[in-house]
Amino acid sequence: MKVGQGYDVHALDVPGSASAIRLGGTDIPFDRAIIAHSDGDVLIHALCDAILGALAIGDIGSHFPDSDAAYTGIDSRKLLVNVAERARSMGYIVANADTTVIAERPKLAPFVEQIRAVLATDLAVDPGCVSVKATTTERLGFIGRGEGIAAQAIVLLRPSS
Question: What CA–CA distances, in Å, run from 43 to 47, 59, 131?
Fold first, then answer.
């Protein structure tokens, strides 16, 4: 078995700059945009890094560099599917993924089950293998001031056979 952890953070644009953000492959109504090269899905980026780390094959930036125009605005679900396929090609599947989004807003509770289902689909695992949580920083730091959003993930990979 292999364990990996991942973390991602992105800045948020000014209020009124958007009508939704993408988290865990799900569009969440929000008045701010995530500033990023891709779709800025911090949850999926952290999850990709956790899987790549468990496999000891680098990080999301080394596999999908922001210097490559092919990844400009890309749907991060495509990256997650690619990473899950790499894990399977190396003989591993996700046994468990535990993720946390760190943000003051938006409130994610109404979307957690949908996000779990999306991530489970992209990882080709049962939704019971995927945990999605959200927390705030109690208005402390750049996240607490609404300047950014972050996510962290930890995964346990098991041999596929």
Answer: 6, 14, 12
Contact 44, 80 (CB under 8 A): yes
Please state whether the predicted TM-score (pTM) of the whole model is above 0.85: yes
DSSP β-ladder status, 92-102 and 130-135: parallel
The count of domains in the chain is 1
- The enclosing domain of 110 has a CATH number of 3.30.1330.50
Residue numbers of the domain that contains 43: 2-159
Per-residue model confidence as pLDDT tens digits over 75-119: 999 999 999 999 999 999 999 999 999 999 999 999 999 999 999
